[in-house]
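Support reply, case 0932

Customer input (verbatim):
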Amino acid sequence: MCQHNDAYAENIKQLIKFVREQNFPASSSVLDVGAGTGNFVCELAQEFPKLQITHLDSNREMNEIALSKYETLNLQNVRVIEEPVQRAEFAAGSFDLVICVNALYAMNPQELILAKLRGWIDPSGFLYVIDLGRRMDSWDWGRHFFKEAYKQKRLLSYLTDAVSRGREVLRQNNMTRIAQETGQYWIHETDEFREALISAGFKIQEIEPCYRGYADRAVCKPAGSNL
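Our regenerated output:
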């Protein structure tokens, strides 16, 4: 269903644009925390084949899907580590860029996770984080997908996918909503997200709502960096 989600595609586009603008050295190290099924890693690894990318996720099923994608694309610059971020260990300053896309909200406690990520980032490096902060509304997303599919003249493709995969998408979205309502997942507004990043030792270069207002995107550097 991701092919019908223009907001998801925009998130990937913004990340690629950010990495291109920073002009990272060819051998730079990148860590994707909570990399899931590897969609963001696939785009990064293809666009910047000399980056050294680490995929970190604790979910074996998702990792297997990601590995299949990496093998299909013959990506040589990606390694996969199956480990919860809470237990993962990397040397201080190991990465020039740490990305975390719609995963932090499910990682508790967020303050300690963010502090851990800060320690892994080179003093001149970046944290690029997108985090789901508002309550999911499955029907709002469904209406949005339908309108976009109609506008882009791919309604038949959307309806076909909705029949075959729509029930599972709704189930996953409802699970997220329930976890948000029960306090299992972190709910936040942009200002609260900003304060959490600052408290964890980051200075913020950019922060804004994204993903149709359901999430926030922030570009940060470790506090104390002169860059």
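We compared this against your earlier run and they match. Two observations from our side: Residues 7-133+186-222 form a domain with the Rossmann fold fold (CATH 3.40.50.150). The mean pLDDT is 87. Please reopen the case if you see a mismatch on your end.
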